[in-house]
Amino acid sequence: MASIEISAVAKSFGPFAVLHGIDLDIADSEFIVLVGPSGCGKSTLLRMIAGLESVTAGEISIDGRRVNELAPKDRDIAMVFQSYALYPHMSVADNMSYSLRLRKTAKEKIAAMVSDAGAKLGLAPLMERRPKALSGGQRQRVAMGRAIVRQPKAFLFDEPLSNLDARLREQMRAEIKKLHADLGATSIYVTHDQIEAMTLADRIVAMHGGVVQQVGAPLDLYDRPANLFVAGFIGSPAMNFLDGRYAREGAVVLPDGTRIPVAPRENLAEGAQVTLGIRPEHVAIVPESPMEAAVELIEPTGFGIILHLSLHGLPFKVFTLDREALKAGPKVPVAFPSQHLHVFDAEGNRAD
Amino acid sequence: MRASKILLTGAHRLAILAYIAVALFPLYWLLKVSVTPNRLLYSEGVRMWPSRTTFEHFEFVVAHSAFPTFFKNSLIVSGSTAVVVTILAALSGYALSRFSFRAKYWIVALMLLTQMFPLVMLVAPIFKMLSPLGLTNSLTGLVIVYSAFNVPFATFLMQSFFDGIPKDLEEAAMIDGATQFVAFRQIILPLTLPGIAATLGFVFTAAWSELLFALMLISGNDAATFPVGLLSFVSKFSVDFGQMMAAGVLALIPACLFFLMIQRYLVQGLTAGAVKG
Amino acid sequence: MPSPAPTDDRRPFLGRLADASQPYLYSAPSLVLIVAVMLVPLVLGLSYAFRDIQLLNPFSGGFVGLDHFRVLGRDQDFYRALKNTLWWTGASVFLQFFLGLILALLLNKPFAGRGLAQALVFLPWAVPSFLAGLNWAWLFNPVIGPLSHWLHALGILSEPLNILADPQLAMWGPIAANVWWGIPFFAITLLAALQAIPNDLYEAAAIDGAGPVQRFVSITLPFLAPTIAITVLLRTVWISNFADLIIVMTNGGPADRTQIVASYIFTQAFRRLDFGYASAIALVLLAALLAYSMLIVLLRQTLLNRN
């Protein structure tokens, strides 16, 4: 297993810069998830680590060794593609053993390693089939098997679950996590799905516009998002944002004059333009609250209920487990507990 | 509604049958005359099938003419050309499909240009270039010339097949430890077998048909290919239609066999290209 | 796609060179062959247009400047061949395209035995062109072929004569052979394009209430247009250069009525062995075809820009 260092890495295609100076240190056997909307550069970064894209500037090292100029085959990494990229003309066993055969591993050893990996993934009865004769989930497993069979320095995953249906995706997500616990392999995982990021990662790297927005443990990103982008991207339903002005005694004043008390922030001036953030699951419905919001829409999800509310014309959402909310009248009293409030300055950065 | 639908279907099948009839009739006629005994040739000239058939023309052509030599020469020339062109076109088609490089535009332009000018114009210069090398009057010379003529189109054909194969596959192979060339050989080429078959067949048929350069670069029977032989046959035995057509039928066989094997891949290859464009 | 060489590449120069030269290595064998056997002879051939090259005349070979072109400007046979080329190419391309399109539409509909039908109707393409020419020449020959008798029976011909010997009708012989031989090319290309049209477009149009004719005009034709444009362009160029059928069937006769520019070049070069003059004609033909292609490409560009 290996550590990976990425320092000041940039990438442009002709005049188009897609990555601007990325710095990231990945520890041995860490599970890193690169997350962000499509076009944020996460896949490009992954492909650069794999050696499938050249590095325009900066340096990528694996185990302290610069690999910028190394061909993919010499980096000793494995990759699981979104399309799985299984070789259609080879059986499952041949797909999994291809890398070992290229390395001229002894036949008996190959057989042992392949059947070992096959057993781990429950592929044993499928070994002689062609990819065409497999279901989506089985193909995904073969792709995983092909990656683990040769015990590489690191695993790269490029949106490996996005071609599966929701149930299978959940199941494979758990299996990937188990596999990582088993093998302890350094892993870099690209996804646009924040749930995958939250559930799998040791650390999440949130990316946007070719720039790293925040690096941290999943709950860090959830509890203390560094900026509006991370705040809005992590969590579902997404965080509510309300624009207002900061009052030094510890409140945010909404345009309609409503004062929402917050803990005082050091770096904000009186009257500064701010955005107040609160997650739907943190909005409280309390009978004695003086603040009343109009109910626009009620969405029961089975597990909980999402209320679409409007506070003097400002839309926001509430997520609650309380079935009583289904019967919510035209107005509900709500409160914004100050320990759950996030304040962002005019540039969109977190203010503490 | 139902009646009109049946009518439409009937018209569709009739139209298909009409096309098949038109496509096959000349070939049928060739076959018919080739098995008509000389005695009946004129008296039963427009009958759809002679009252008595014979294989004497075929026997004569195979046993008493230089036909077997022509046939062998043509097989050698067309077969070698098909193999050479397919290998070259697979390589250059792969380059056009998978790399973006500065000269790409110029290579495509050059290949398009070669499809544009009258090849007649090249006969004299090629003759002058090949004759000091001892490549006139030789099958090798013909293979070289035919290969050059067929490489551009074959390159475009192979490119369209490569374009239909996801790039992920060779990237996966390269991560698995292959160089790009190994990935090309072990992963991409086996998946392009239909394309390779189509290209082989296409080039074989084209080389089998070529008349002009065979006529100009080859003199004498020893290295003559089928078209040249058949044409000399026509001028020598111009009254013996039965024998000429028997030779024609034999000339037709390899080309048609090859074509029947590959024709569905041809549509496939062109579809792959169309999807991309 | 491996992108251009990175700016910060610390490999030795040779390593970078090996990487950058990869596409060239793949295309080199084909390019060498094309340059050696087509481009060099082409340039040589072009130079012959300005020289006096007669195979049987040992004193020939001198530079004659534009003499060949001056002669060409007064050559009535050349002008006739030019007119014949337009007629030959226009009629062949139009009929091949029109009949090929119908065939492609017929084959695009699923039916039992489609694979076999497709193989059979495409078969003429596999027939060597010289054999197709001979075959049709025999069919038109009233002694052994039925065509003239049938045409007579239909009242098209007053007598069952060989139309290849009739100056008024001779050109129809090679055109018929060419159409028969070339329909599959159009049908195959158009069928491939048809199969690439997504089916849900037709379904959406049908739900929107479009009839078969409207669907053809508003979906099929626009989708086929690029393919049609490029195939017609390529075929036009190719057929104007295609002399095999004419040489085999009529040799330009009777009375030069079927002589096209390409066969005229052939006649000049191999009957009269005047390669200089033949090259001059070929140069003019090449220029005309290039101009034609440019015109089509420009036209297409303007049309695309307007949309």
From TrEMBL, chain A:
Its main location: membrane. Residues 4-234 form the ABC transporter domain. The keyword Transport applies. InterPro entries: AAA+_ATPase, ABC_transporter-like_ATP-bd, ABC_transporter-like_CS, ABC_transpr_MalK-like, ABC_transpr_MalK/UgpC-like, Mo/tungstate-bd_C_term_dom, NA-bd_OB-fold, OB_MalK-like. Keywords: ATP-binding, Nucleotide-binding, Transport. PROSITE patterns: ABC_TRANSPORTER_1, ABC_TRANSPORTER_2. It holds the Pfam family OB_MalK. One of its GO terms (molecular function) is ATP binding. It is found in: Cell inner membrane. It is a peripheral membrane protein. Belongs to the ABC transporter superfamily. This is ABC transporter ATP-binding protein. The lineage of its organism: Bacteria, Pseudomonadati, Pseudomonadota, Alphaproteobacteria, Hyphomicrobiales.
From TrEMBL, chain B:
It holds the Pfam family BPD_transp_1. Keywords: Cell membrane, Membrane, Transmembrane, Transmembrane helix, Transport. The chain crosses the membrane at residues 12-31, 75-96, 105-127, 139-162, 183-205, 211-234, 246-267. It is found in: Cell membrane. Its main location: membrane. Belongs to the binding-protein-dependent transport system permease family. This is Carbohydrate ABC transporter permease. The lineage of its organism: Bacteria, Pseudomonadati, Pseudomonadota, Alphaproteobacteria, Hyphomicrobiales.
UniProtKB/TrEMBL annotation, chain C:
InterPro entries: ABC_transporter_permease, MetI-like, MetI-like_sf. The keyword Cell membrane applies. Pfam families: BPD_transp_1 (PF00528). Signal peptide: none annotated. Coiled coil: none annotated. SUPFAM superfamilies: MetI-like (SSF161098). Keywords: Cell membrane, Membrane, Transmembrane, Transmembrane helix, Transport. It is found in: Cell membrane. It is a multi-pass membrane protein. Residues 82-296 form the ABC transmembrane type-1 domain. The chain crosses the membrane at residues 24-50, 86-107, 119-140, 179-198, 219-239, 275-299. CDD domains: TM_PBP2 (cd06261). The keyword Transmembrane helix applies. Gene3D superfamilies: MetI-like (1.10.3720.10). Belongs to the binding-protein-dependent transport system permease family. PANTHER family: ABC TRANSPORTER PERMEASE PROTEIN (PTHR30193), INNER MEMBRANE ABC TRANSPORTER PERMEASE PROTEIN YCJO (PTHR30193:SF37). This is Carbohydrate ABC transporter permease. It comes from Shinella pollutisoli. The lineage of its organism: Bacteria, Pseudomonadati, Pseudomonadota, Alphaproteobacteria, Hyphomicrobiales.
